[in-house]
Write a structure and sequence with these properties.
single chain; binds iron/sulfur cluster; binds 6-(5-methyl-2-OXO-imidazolidin-4-yl)-hexanoic acid; about 375 residues; binds S-adenosylmethionine; globular; alpha/beta; 12 strands; ten-stranded parallel β-sheet; TIM Barrel
């Protein structure tokens, strides 16, 4: 096994297949149908060609505007159409958001994701949101927002403010979408993703597993994402959080292996994207989370709350990372991963051959200690 560091060379590797954007349904279905061990082995092999397998990117969520959303997404506790007992809240003050971001940074997050229960932002709200982006970015955090649908002007304004990522999930396949949401279309979603790309922001887009969809809907979702002209840099895979009062409160348990398979297939067909083990971790035991990391998940939401529902306690995640020898991904490692960017900075290229990246324990400790001391110190 090599202990080579990631090369800073720009030389392309002859052994790493180039990214594909022409995945066929049959091919992706065949990945889902692989024996579980074969699928995980393939996913882990691909993962090691592009990422340090022992690093996981750490993001913290903040709900900047909660509840009373006019949309009818059947999974969502924030829709005004369902009685979920949620207290609605107006748009947070900019200062309060910055305080939350400071706290997230000091507990080890490198990205701060701000979410609003809007169909789309109103132009009167945009100046406040822009100030939030600027303030959070000034703290040295990556910024992400999820505010609903954006037009081209709003996208450009957010990009100009310095917003790094925009989260906008496709949620499921085009075919199943109408069974989940009727107040907007799949094409509305795709249009916003196009506006985000055109404005030069990085795309965070994924979906939810466990909404009663079939395997072909998971295939359809992942093909939709992978066949975009550029893969989303971040692909959140959420396990449905069944919230009382929503139409999906009593759906059946999801088969854990189907969830892990979805992560593994996402890893294989979008090899350079961060795949996020997103909502639903509160319901997962540590073994399942470890399996998700093995399948190629390399990002999490960190902190006791997602937007309105529970997430594992920060200390629990620190302990889990420690037990698995996982370190938070340093901020520097998450830069410039866009397709066409310096992609080989994250794979290990030596004389055209791919080496599997496996840092020595000492290297791993040094990297982490430099990157996110607060996260690391708290568990040492
Ligand atoms: N309103 C904006 C929108 O829908 O794009 C942004 C906020 S919305 C809550 C962000 C994402 O959270 C949704 O696209 C969905 O994928 C995810 N989500 C919402 N409720 C969920 C639940 N109960 N379980 C899992 N994921 C959920
Ligand atoms: C994403 O894919 N999942 C996050 C984030 N993007 C915005 C949201 C999960 C929400 C889970 C339900 C809640 O806490 O309200
Ligand atoms: Fe509104 Fe977003 Fe929830 Fe849909 S997912 S109801 S758009 S907050």
């Amino acid at each position: 096994m090599s202990s080579a560091k990631p090369s800073s060379s720009n030389a392309p590797s002859s052994n790493v297949p180039s990214l594909r954007h022409d995945w066929m349904r049959d091919e992706v279905s065949a990945l889902f149908a692989l024996p579980f061990n074969d699928l995980l082995f393939q996913a882990q092999t691909v993962h090691r060609q592009h990422f340090n397998p022992n690093q996981v990117q750490v993001s913290t969520l903040c709900s900047i505007k909660t509840g009373a959303c006019p949309e009818d997404c059947k999974y969502c506790p924030q829709s005004a159409r369902y009685d979920t007992g949620l207290e609605k809240e107006k748009l947070m003050q900019v200062d309060a958001v910055i305080e939350e971001a400071k706290a997230a940074k000091s507990s080890g997050a490198t990205r701060f994701c701000m979410g609003a229960a809007w169909r789309s932002p109103k132009n009167k709200d945009l100046p406040y949101v822009v100030e939030m982006v600027k303030g959070v970015k000034a703290l040295g955090l990556e910024t992400c927002m999820t505010l609903g649908m954006l037009d081209d002007k709003q996208s450009s304004e957010l990009a100009a403010a310095g917003l790094d990522y925009y989260n906008h999930n496709l949620d499921t396949s085009k075919e199943y979408y109408g069974d989940i949401i009727t107040t907007r279309t799949y094409d509305d979603r795709l249009n916003t993703l196009q506006n985000v790309r055109d404005a030069g922001m990085k795309v965070c887009s994924g979906g939810i597993v466990g909404m009663g969809e079939g395997e072909q809907d998971r295939v359809g979702l992942l093909i939709q994402l992978a066949n975009m002209p550029a893969h989303p840099e971040s692909v959140p895979i959420n396990m449905l959080v069944r919230v009382e009062g929503t139409p999906f409160e009593a759906l059946d348990d999801l088969d854990s292996f189907d969830f892990i398979r979805t992560i593994a297939v996402a890893r294989i067909i979008m090899p350079k994207s961060h795949v996020r083990l997103s909502a639903g971790r509160e319901e997962m035991n540590e073994q399942m989370q470890a399996m998700a990391f093995f399948a190629g998940a390399n990002s999490i939401f960190y902190g006791e709350k997602l937007l309105t529902t529970a997430n594992p306690e920060a200390d629990k995640d620190k302990q889990l990372f420690k037990r698995l020898g996982i370190e938070p991904e340093p901020y520097s490692a998450v830069e410039d991963r866009r397709e066409g960017g310096n992609a080989s900075a994250v794979s290990n290229v030596s004389n055209g051959a791919v080496e599997i990246f496996e840092p020595t324990a000492k290297e791993a400790i040094q990297q982490t200690a430099q990157a996110t001391p607060l996260f690391y110190n708290a568990v040492s």
